[in-house]
Amino acid sequence: MSTEIHIDKDTLMTLKEVMEEEFQLLIDTFLSDAEQRLAALRDCLARADSTGLRAAAHSFKGSCSNIGAPLMAQLCARVEDAAVAGELDGLAPALDAIEAEHKIVVAALGEL
User: In this predicted model, what pLDDT tens digit does every residue of 50-92 receive, in sequence order?
Assistant: First the structure.
């Protein structure tokens, strides 16, 4: 049995309490921004732009943490670390993992 936490429900419930009617806007914004962030990660990797990849992964990591998607944040952190080290070879599977986790997170957020 997997112990990975795709969505931290405590984080989401706290956000919902604090943001009240703005909560759905936050979720919608995260979902639309995530698509752009995934594209930016792929683009930077394709161009071997380690600086851009680091920045994109760092930004996406923060968004994932804020919304309560800890595994996706962790995956972004790994890409960020690799970009900082200039180790871009072989990162395509890491981006695949982020995209796969994104699908899980989208489905979980849709169930709210």
Answer: 999 999 999 999 999 999 999 999 999 999 999 999 999 999 9
Q: Which domain holds residue 78?
A: 36-110
Domain count of the fold of the chain = 1
User: Which string of DSSP letters, residue by residue, matches the chain?
Assistant: -----SS-HHHHHHHHHHHGGGHHHHHHHHHHHHHHHHHHHHHHHHTT-HHHHHHHHHHHHHHHHHHT-HHHHHHHHHHHHHHHTT--TT-HHHHHHHHHHHHHHHHHHHT-
31 is a domain residue: no
Q: Would the pTM of this model clear 0.85, i.e. be above it? A: yes
